[in-house]
Amino acid sequence: MRAPTLVLAFAVFTGLLAGQTPAPRVEKSAYGSFQLNVDGQPFLILSAQVANSSGWKDQLERSWPLYQQLHANTAEIPVYWEVVEPQEGRFDFSSVDMVIEGARAHHLHLVLLWFATWKNGEMDYVPTWVKENPGRFPRMRNRAGEQVRVLTPLSTESRDADKRAFAALMRHVKEVDGDRHTVIMVQVENESGSLETDRDYSAEANKQFNGPVAPELLRALGKSPGKAAANWRQVFGPEEADEAFAAYSVATYVNAVAAAGKKEYDLPMYANVWLRERKNFERPGDAYPSGGATSNMLDLWKAVTPALDAIGPDNYVLDYIGYRSVLRTYARPDNPLFVPETMPGPLAARYMFYALGEFHALSFAPFGLDASLDPQYASMGLFDGLSANYRLLGPAIPEIARLQKANAIQVAVEEDRLTDLRLTYTQYESVVTFGTPKPSYGGLFGTGTKDKTGRALVAEVAPDEFLIGGFDALVKFLPRRSSELRRAQFAWAEEGDFENGVWKRTRLLNGDEVFFGIALPAAGKWVKVKLIAY
Ligand code: DGJ
After folding, report:
1. 3-state SS of 112-179?
2. pLDDT tens across 443-502, in order?
């Protein structure tokens, strides 16, 4: 037993000496929760995406400082198939190098977004030589048999061309960054699936649709193939058969592209999803791209995409109940939660607390950071709340990741008329109040903040010890109702900050500062408390 351990330790040690820390990884802990490791340390992606046409030098030069103002640790930047392979087989990765160098110069990690066969359920980012050759790279056909602006996922020519380009990209990233890990994750395609039609209705597609469902898919979904091989309509029913057929062909295509890339450089990879939630009549191909990993197709996608580490919701749902329900859907035992896109603004600042604290998200990234370059948007301060979040939470990442893993975090987020939230722990309860408390029947109640900026996390570090962080909130404690004891006092309360995940006390709080509870100001802060019940 001893010799292999020593050999392993020696290999790790010499690897470290040579500057080779392991490549970024998404790992599952023994408790079933996920962790993203970068250079051997737990990591959370605090990021934002730039606009679609911003992966260019001038735009990026103006965007890098925005990432720093945001206190982001990672930038999410598109790389374009049409740019890296302008002629078939002739690759030009200077645009990718420029992105990597820019990120390094600004001390940022990168998530690269591979805009290729699919972008928002269309084919717009494929190179011109693909667009010009529908004979070789066929488009999908709608019910009327007309071509639409989406490549068919059934074409092996298209799939192999995308695979070759993506593999070349990953090979290049490994060459220039394999020992640096600036790039920590890659998004494969963008919002895959088809707008304009719910599936391909070409003659070949119809033939496959009326043929048997692949037995391995049936097995993976726990559906019995039965005696006679059943077709898509028989297995999935009239409502979902067309969409399931599309999802199977899109998911297996995306998986093949991801696998080809991983073979070159094994980085974590994910697919992002244009959601179906709250979309009018929820018609696939109309309200959202058909064949993407929408909630109704998630089991199917998970069954056939082993090369993807995650499937992440582009969560633009505005109401907090719907927003949390999406997070709950995609945070599954077989799927770590990444939020690749969400809206900026005050909602994102609040909803991030649900994502990280309640659903253990490993990334959060509102869309359109460089919109703030436009003075009209700049004055709206769309990223202000988020920037405050990242400034507070960023240095605490190793601790937050540890608490996520231990399932120790609870959050309280202010919403319309939700001004007092009760959280329950092993021995204590807390009430988090937003806005000046005013007396009413039954005690003191929060009146809400002016712009609904209250958001806090309260983590149980030990049964009598809590870490509290957040903004615009007041946190009070009592022993749990079930306890014999009725009151609680602070043994101590420390204000502090994190430096690289290590707690640094700045002062002890006492007197007026704790008399009514622990107050978190608008600028945000961290406090640790130890309680005594009596
Ligand atoms: C979702 C897409 O994935 C993004 O690339 C961008 O187009 C946004 N929508 C725009 O809202």
Report:
1. EEEEEEEECCECCCCCHHHHCCCCCCCEEECCCCCEEEEECCCCHHHHHHHHHHHHHHHHHHHHHHCC
2. 999 999 999 999 999 999 999 999 999 999 999 999 999 999 999 999 999 999 999 999
Which pLDDT value is given to residue 5? 46
Of 246, 244, 296, 292, the closest CA to residue 271 belongs to: 292
Q: Is the C-beta atom of 245 inside 6 A of ligand 1?
A: no
Distance 371 CA to ligand 1 centre (A): 13
Q: How far apart are CA 344 and CA 384, in angstroms?
A: 9
Give the tens place of pLDDT for each residue, 32-82: 789 999 999 999 999 999 999 999 999 999 999 999 999 999 999 999 999
Would the CB of 76 count as within 6 Å of ligand 1?
Answer: no
State the Rg of the chain over Cα.
25
CA proximity to 64, closest of 112, 104, 111: 104
Cα separation, 26 vs 340, in Å, equals 15
Q: What is the pLDDT of residue 56?
A: 98
- Return the amino acid letter for 452: K
Q: Which residues of 502-530 are buried (b: 16+ CB within 10 A; e: fewer)?
A: eeeeeeebeeeebeebbbbeeebbbbbbe
Domain ranges of the chain: 2-406, 411-533
CATH annotation of 411-533:
2.60.220.20
Residue partners of 110: CB distance under 8 A and separation at least 6:
74, 75, 76, 77, 99, 100, 103, 182, 183, 184
Output the six-digit token pair for 106: 């600004």
CA-nearest of 401, 407, 412 to 500 is: 401
Evaluate: CB of 367 within 6 angstroms of ligand 1.
yes
Q: Which atom of ligand 1 is nearest to the CA of 367?
A: 8
Q: For ligand 1, atom 8, which residue shows the shortest CA distance?
A: 367
Site to probe by mutation for ligand 1, drawn from 49, 341, 370 as the one with most ligand atoms within 8 Å of Cβ, is: 341
Ligand 1 neighbourhood includes 341 CB (under 6 angstroms): yes
Q: State the first-to-last Cα distance of the chain, in angstroms, to the nearest integer.
A: 51
Q: Which residue puts its alpha carbon closest to atom 5 of ligand 1?
A: 52
pLDDT at 32: 78
Does residue 21 contact residue 15 with C-beta atoms inside 8 Å? yes
Could you give phi then psi for residue 142, rounded to 5 degrees? -85, -175
Extract the residue ranges of the chain whose pLDDT is less than 50: 1-9, 11-15, 17-18
Q: How far is the CA of 118 from the centre of ligand 1 (A)?
A: 12
User: Which ligand 1 atom lies nearest to the CA of residue 78?
Assistant: 5
Instruction: Taking the CA atoms of 163, 329, 121 and 75 in sequence, report the sign of the dihedral they define.
Output: negative
* CATH class as words, domain 2-406: alpha beta
Please tell me if the CB atom of residue 124 comes closer than 6 angstroms to any atom of ligand 1: no
- Tell me how many helices (H) and strands (E) the chain has: 16, 25
Query: What is the pTM assigned to this prediction?
Result: 0.95
